[in-house]
Design brief:
alpha/beta; about 350 residues; globular; 10 strands; single chain
Length: about 350
């Protein structure tokens, strides 16, 4: 009996530990739409802190939206972290994601909270970044090319075959570029611009950050990307310079959504709250991730592009995250640009 009483006492004394362990057990199926380095850093840190086993897949935001939509009746994913906000908003409007009001909302910047409010809390902002491009300074010097400070300059004949941008069907970055140009120029003029730009594009990549990585390696002169991706290459020591377009530019609110029907809902909420914390967001710079974090108390990397110094348009997230608008723009891009792509 003594041993039984001792065991009971031990169990009582360790109740908190056992409750936490039971709570922390299990798995989490995560899709990450940021650069694979930050995806892996967060995956490892979360597993270490919680004991939850993370099954992480890295997909671009357009690919993730398509996967989540295709699996709506039998979801294979619990949570979708990062990637541009437009497809997150589209998923929210189609009822593919779950309403969740995190206790961390009070710690977030207004733009992150507004993203949540606009989607009835079916998504939330996790970081922000402005659209622009990065160019290889050594290639520019070798080929005697002039820095392109404006969208209009990218049409110059000297850049024929020297530009890469992602395909907007698979990449949230490229869809943001498409929607940005439509908002700056009007739809017809934007498509005229894109058809002319096509003559200078050597490749439409699947991933949004791939164009500037190609520029860093010397495979192309210019990559149209979010500026923080260009900064990341420069910090790595590559001869890349980031440019903010003179006419104005759009920006992303990288977002996060819990998938409706998530099999591991409690663990998805744990990730959601954890990754919105100042501590976790401050650590992202260690993975050469230079976005503006959504937590007001998180440390902003000194290398991050300063949004206040960039001419940002009043990007209409609601309109361009609408499923019908997005579908119409992508279909027009396929017809008028993609069909004649190099």
């Amino acid at each position: 009996m003594g041993s039984v009483r001792m065991t009971a006492a031990a169990l009582a004394a360790g109740a908190t530990f056992f409750a936490y362990s039971a709570q922390a057990n299990g798995t989490l199926n995560l899709i990450c739409s940021a650069d694979v380095v930050i995806c892996e850093q967060l995956e490892g840190a979360f597993e270490k802190e919680t004991g939850i086993s993370v099954n992480m897949v890295r997909l671009s935001s357009g690919e993730t939206y398509a996967k989540v939509r295709a699996e709506a009746r039998n979801p294979k994913t619990d949570i979708w972290w990062a990637g541009t906000g437009d497809p997150h908003l589209q998923a929210a409007s189609e009822g593919l994601t779950l309403e969740y009001k995190s206790p961390m909302l009070a710690e977030l910047n207004d733009w992150a909270v507004k993203q949540a409010e606009s989607a009835n809390y079916r998504t939330v902002g996790v970081y922000a970044g402005a659209l622009g491009w990065g160019y290889n300074t050594e290639i520019f010097k070798q080929k005697n090319l002039k820095e392109p400070p404006c969208w209009a300059d990218l049409l110059d004949a000297s850049f024929k075959g020297e530009i890469q941008i992602a395909n907007p069907n698979s990449s949230g970055t490229a869809y943001t570029a498409l929607a940005t140009l439509v908002q700056i120029m009007g739809e017809d003029k934007a498509f005229d611009y894109l058809k002319k730009l096509n003559a200078n594009v050597s490749q439409y990549t699947k991933s949004g950050s791939a164009p500037v990585k190609a520029a860093a390696r010397g495979e192309t002169a210019i990559g149209i990307v979010f500026m923080h991706d260009a900064v990341a290459q420069a910090v790595e020591g590559f001869p890349v310079k980031a440019v903010a377009p003179c006419e104005g530019t759009g920006y992303e609110i990288g977002s996060m959504s819990i998938i409706k029907g998530a099999k591991n809902l409690d663990n998805a909420k744990k990730w959601y709250d954890w990754v919105l914390s100042a501590k976790v967001q401050s650590s992202m710079k260690e993975a050469k991730s230079f976005q503006i974090p959504s937590n007001k108390s998180a440390e902003v990397p000194k290398e991050a592009p300063k949004l206040e110094e960039i001419k940002l348009i009043d990007y209409d997230f609601k309109t361009y995250g609408d499923p019908a608008k997005r579908k119409a723009l992508l279909e027009r891009w396929d017809r008028e640009v993609g069909a004649s792509a190099n």
